[in-house]
Amino acid sequence: MAARRARALINDDVQEWFRRGGCGPLEITAAELDAIGCPVLLLAGEDDPVAPAASALRLERSVTRAAVQIQVLAGVGHGTFRQAPAQAFAALRAFLRDAI
Predict the structure, then answer these.
(1) DSSP 1
(2) Which residue stretches of the chain have pLDDT < 50?
(3) For the whole model, what pTM was predicted?
């Protein structure tokens, strides 16, 4: 991540905008959340400015009728499978193995 940051142009104002929900809230209703009946895996990057880990944690708490697993990957941004492929694929394999 340090190497990526070294060559990236980081705009702190834009990142803060996203962290505060600048894209707007996820438009999903309680009825839609209640309709989720299959197991759910949420992968989140701890440093994701677009879909913050805090949002994934709120989503996890909002799904009440299905089993939800969440993995927040430390030092990872928006691209969990690109930035931490070993961790992301291991989590996916374990999730699928347990779901069968």
Answers:
(1) -
(2) none
(3) 0.71
